[in-house]
Amino acid sequence: MKGLGLAGAGLGAAAASTPVFRDIDEAISAPSADWKRPWWVKERDYEDPTTEIDWSIVQRIDNSTTYCTASPFVAAGYRAGYVVKPGGDVSSASPVVADFMKSFKKTTKDYVNEKNPDWAGDTLRDCALFDSSVALQFGALKQPRNPAGGFRSIPTPEQRGVAKWSATPEENMRMIRAAGRLAGLRDVSCVELNSTTIKNIFSKNRAGKVVNFDSVVDYTEDDSSITYPNSCKWVISFNTQFANHLMRRSPAGPGLAAHKMGYARLGTGAAFLQEFLYGLGYMGFGSLPTIDVPWPILCGVAEKGRMGMNVVSPEYGAQSGVATILTDLPLAPVKPIDAGIVRFCESCGICAEMCPWDSIPKGESSWEPEWEINYPAPGFKGWRVNSNTCNYCTGCQGVCPFNSASHASAHALVRATSAVTPLFNGFFANMEEFMGFGGNKDPEAWWDMGDFTYGIDTTA
Amino acid sequence: MLLVVGLIFGALLVGLIMYLRSRDIALTWYEWLIGIAGFALLLFTIQNIIGCLAEFESTAAVLFLPITGIPALILLIVAWQLAWRRNKA
Q1: Which of A2, A35, A229, A321 has the fewest CB atoms within 10 Å, counting from its CB?
Q2: What is the enclosing helix (H) or strand (E) of A237?
Q3: Residue among B48, B55, B64 whose CB faces A460 most closely
């Protein structure tokens, strides 16, 4: 009976301490709408991320002539290196893909077999998993590509007979963060668009249209240009978490599915935020003509790691995707962070060692690219992937030590220590490999791994 | 989980103190230090083994045994032996 009484008191205490929101205002102002970071994640000044940037060198890119991501080989050989039939038969690959594959020292299967010698290659279910995820992100299952300003399908404040939403920039930032998380996004942050950060926006988009900002009421587009309103001064940068255990199977087919599914959810979340902004009486423009990578490192979502075309988050490692929305909703910009990630990358290099295509630089960070690539990305000190040979296998994302889950306390100890001092980084990187953490896990084993919605082990 | 671990740790500590008092054994500061370090390392080992298994990292879980588990045992044995030999003398 005493036990029941204690249990009752415990339940009562728990109920008294559980947050209860009666309306969205309470939800926005609650501490849970804050962005809680580990104690060892420090703030830096605006426009001063851990990746050194010489803004005087950075120029807006003409994306019609400069490939800022992977080369055209990506389009032709997206799954270059993958078996395209169950059982390991590569003969069904197109000639372009086959030639591309022959140019490399080892195939994806060779790499996976280094640690998983019994793996016979992508099975039918692996291929179906990957192709379904691609269909969701790009293909038949994808919602129609939303217009630049979103579908704008919901009522505006004017249509509801109320005033446009108004709040402080800080409150708006918390609100957008709360809304974004409802849509499956994780870290939602903001960069102020000014004369410096606008350099991340292309001067021309892929179609060759000049990208302008002018005193227009709404987005406009004609044969030669696209124009955004000058009132849009805030870039919302956000990410979504990938299926963590699945991504460690990259570059085998199932691992890629984690990447595709994550980006599919990112697109849905972005479309949701655009509608939400519209419903508040503001504009939100997605699919910005920009490189996505600089924005999250400018507003604390992540740091720029060694691997080229993505970022590394203190919470999710390299297992996340990022996107942006331009808006005229006043938001409080967020400062960049220092979690010791870039310093760790200097000593680590695991992603570069694993890359089946030797596309990631193995040396120290540099202001210059290591190889001749279409877009040398001037103006920052870091690492530049060889875009001629990288084919988006996402294997690098699967092996990053910062992907580590949080069940074992050793991970927290390593992260906190590496954030404070780089002294042990080399030792930690060696232990990561010695202990067998990281990627290149058995692709078959994932199918029996557990019951995680979206494939995300949230307990980790 | 933490509550259970804390209760067990507290019970072990109380039991140790009661045992030492019953045998009129006093530990030196360095014997306490080595013993606590060994016990902390043992807890660290156990937690990481369980944590690694929860992360589906079975190789890492097994490797924690020799890497941190053996040093933990060594420290505990050293603390015990120092106290035992000193009190025996």
Answers
A1: A2
A2: strand A234-241
A3: B55
- Verify cis geometry, omega within 30 degrees of 0, for the bond prior to A251: yes
B47 near A CB under 8 A: yes
Give kind and range of the element (H or E) at residue A392.
none
Burial class (CB in 10 A: 0-12, 13-18, 19+), A42: middle
Using the Cβ of A410 and the Cβ atoms of chain B, whether some distance falls under 8 Å is answered with yes
Alpha helices in A89-218 (DSSP H): 95-102, 108-115, 124-137, 157-160, 169-182
Cα angle B82, B86, B89; round to 5:
145
State whether B59 and A245 contact (CB < 8 Å). Answer: no
Q: Please, how many CA atoms are within 13 Å of residue A377, restricted to the half-sphere of its CB? A: 26
**Closest chain A C-alpha to B19 CA, distance in angstroms:** 31
Q: Would you call A220 helix, strand, or coil by DSSP?
A: strand
Kind and range of the H or E run holding A286: none
Tell me which residue of A252, A413, A382 sits closest to A311, measured CA to CA: A382
Asked if the C-beta of B51 comes within 8 angstroms of chain A's C-beta atoms, the answer is yes
CB pairs under 8 A between A and B: 42
A435 CB within 8 Å of a chain B CB: yes
Chain A, nearest residue to B60 by Cα:
A435
> Which residues have C-beta within 8 Å of that of residue B64, sequence separation ≥ 6?
A410, B45, B48, B49, B52
Q: What is the mean pLDDT of residues B19-30?
A: 86
Single-letter amino acid, residue A57: I
The answer to whether A408 contacts B55, with C-beta atoms less than 8 Å apart, is yes
β-bridge pairing A320-327 and A234-241: antiparallel
- Whether B29 contacts chain A with CB within 8 A: no
Which residues partner with A191 through β-bridges? A235
pLDDT of A347-402, one tens digit each? Answer: 999 999 988 878 899 999 999 988 887 777 889 999 998 877 777 788 899 999 99
- Does residue B66 belong to the interface with chain A, where contact is any CB pair within 8 Å? no
ipTM of the complex: 0.86
**CB neighbours of A443 closer than 8 A, spacing ≥ 6?**
A112, A116, A119, A122, A126, A249, A252, A253, A254, A255
To probe the interface with A, which of B52, B53, B64, B65 has the most A CB atoms within 10 Å?
B52
Which residues fall within 8 angstroms of residue A85, CB to CB, at 6 or more apart? A91, A92, A127
- Give the gap in angstroms from C-alpha B33 to the nearest C-alpha of chain A: 21
Residue A349 Rama label (left phi>0; alpha psi -120 to 50; beta): left
Please name the helix (run of DSSP H) or strand (run of DSSP E) that holds residue A354, with its range, or none. Answer: helix A350-354
Q: How many CB atoms lie within 10 A of CB B76?
A: 18
Neighbouring C-beta atoms of residue A325, cutoff 10 Å: 28
Q: What is the pTM of this model?
A: 0.86
A269-302: pLDDT as tens digits: 999 999 999 999 999 999 899 988 899 999 999 9
DSSP 8-state assignment for residue A336: -
